[in-house]
Amino acid sequence: MDTILVIDDVDVNRELLRAHLGDQYRIVEAANGEEALRLTAQEPVDLVLLDVMMPGLDGYEVTRRIRQLRGNDLLPILLLTSLSSSEERLRGFEAGADDFITKPVEMHELRMRVRAFLRTRRLYRDREALLVEAQQLHLMKDDFVALLVHDLRNPLAALQSWLELVDFAGVSGEAHEALEGATVAAQRLRELVDDLLQARLLEDGAVQAALTSGPIEPVARAAAATVQGLAAGRQVAVRLDVPAEPLLVHHDRPLLQRALENVLINAIRHTPANAAVTLRVYRDRDSVHLEVSDEGPGIPAEERPLLFSKYGSLSLRRTGDRRGHGLGLFLVGLVMQAHHGFVHAAVAPTGGTCMVMSLPVQ
To answer: Which CATH number fits domain 3-105: 3.40.50.2300, 3.30.365.10, 3.40.50.300, 1.10.10.10?
Structure first.
């Protein structure tokens, strides 16, 4: 049963309200502002009916203090007053009141308004409960993912080690291709697991970017060198365009290089054979940019905002196939936030996708 707090210094007025509302609601009464504030802090009040003209704390001050006590709780406060001027009503709304009921009170109108405000409050509380449940499910999902990552890392490391020990030179034909495919697949799976772990640590604040001053060009060169094997296997050229003069930025080199590698890998995987991916480093007035352009089919404009969302996937314009697992690029977004920068996607001059990682100028 909903609880209504009735605040009025006149006994007859409280008795009248209790007589008309007590059959449907639990009524709690206060004869002054101080008592009302004590009850508000102690009782599970769902709605307040408050007289404006009272000795001591008036209705406006009581309203302000109730709002302070209850914080963001959507507690309806209805002021009962014989004052009808717009200035007085404005004063009530500024204090935090939700509505006015003019004295003498018309009881049918009062019941209708009380019912409406309590219905709104119940909807608000149901929404809050759903949000809490959703947050709990989200935490459970994250805990499950963390356990999954932990359990996958060791067997994946062992699988990679065994594959590296295989003498590929003594194997030919389909068996050689199968071993090469298994090696690539194991490496890719390890990258996914590492991305997942790194994203989780950044989200939780367990890893902070250790920003130090230094040139950005070595990061670009190292990232380009790391993906050369993947690019060669897919017959994609990786072109590097860096300025002759060093560009200094504050950055965490391992994190930034990992993010740039993810962008390059994504571009290489969606660029056709005999085409190219270009990594360009340049500066404008306020930022240093790492720009990766591919010659793939491109991404529809309405899907570009999803690129850096968690577990998101995109469809290729040309084939309609799924593009990306939404984790490597999600990690890119987290890394750029840690660097006080940002990343966005646009259309490349080649018609493919251009991803730009922007860092503030030192």
So the answer is: 3.40.50.2300
Closest CA to 241 of 294, 292, 285: 292
Per-residue pLDDT tens for 295-307?
Answer: 888 887 777 777 7
What is the rounded radius of gyration, in angstroms, for the C-alpha atoms of the chain? 32
Tokens of 155: 């067997």
CA distance 358 to 344: 9
- pTM score, whole prediction: 0.51
Residue closest to 115 by CA, chosen among 180, 25, 232? 25
Note the helical H segments in the chain: 11-21, 33-42, 59-70, 86-95, 107-165, 173-204, 217-226, 228-233, 253-269, 328-338
CA distances from 116 to 40, 50, 279 (A): 21, 17, 60
CATH of domain 212-360: 3.30.565.10
Length of the chain: 362
